[in-house]
Amino acid sequence: MNRPLALVFDFDGTLAELNIDFGLMARQVEALARRMGFAGPWPAGYLLEVVGRVANALGDGFAAQAEEVIRQVEVEAAARGRLFDFCRPLLAGLRREGLAVAIVSRNCAAAIRRVFPDIDAHCQAFLPREAAPRPKPDPAHVLAALERLGVWPAQAWMIGDHPTDMSAGRAAGCFCLGLTSGRSDAAALCAAGAGLVLADAGMIAEMIAA
Fold it and tell me: How far apart are the first and last CA of the chain?
């Protein structure tokens, strides 16, 4: 494991408390689809990708309304959210060490900025889902961030609390560092591609300084 030139961080569960009610979000989106006439079995998978598949049947109108439902749940959750105490000191310290920092998320910009209004001062690239070519676990999300940083994937670490972070980072060609500060355990993170698992991102500062 070499010292990186860049660190790409997930947000919820990695730099901030994860408090989005994904069950509520999924139920509201499915209810919307049923009201609009979707009668088939509800697809399995992550909700953003499910919305895309259902939109093939219902059209762009459903996709836009589903996005608004998702955004409202995210922004409401952000009102109850907070950054982990180590977040700002960690990111500032990494920048002092000369490392490039990006933050990528499947969450929307409005929700993230509600929790972290000064995010742009703490990273060189911020790509919420609206700014991603395709969101994680697609590696395009990570690769777009690295392109903005001007760093090759092999010179970067992808850091996150969810298997989608590990899958995206591994497919992009990054070293993947998993965190159990969200809702995934070490086994799930390793199975998805983590080369190392830590309790939280606050421990990274000591690793970089060593």
Answer: 13
Residue 210 has pLDDT above 70, yes or no: no
Task: Write down the pLDDT at residue 72.
Answer: 97
Look at residue 18 in the predicted model and tell me its pLDDT.
Answer: 85
Check residue 205 and give its pLDDT.
87
In 3D space, the residue among 132, 157, 125 whose CA is nearest the CA of residue 48 turns out to be 132
Burial class from Cβ neighbours inside 10 Å (0-12, 13-18, 19+) for residue 151 reads buried
Phi-psi region of 177 (alpha: psi -120 to 50; beta: other; left: phi over 0): beta
Instruction: Compute the Cα dihedral for 74, 77, 78, 82 and give only its sign.
Output: negative
Structure tokens at 34: 């049923």
What residue ranges define each of the domains in the chain, with the CATH number in brackets? 6-17+82-209 (3.40.50.1000), 22-78 (no CATH)
pTM above threshold 0.85: yes
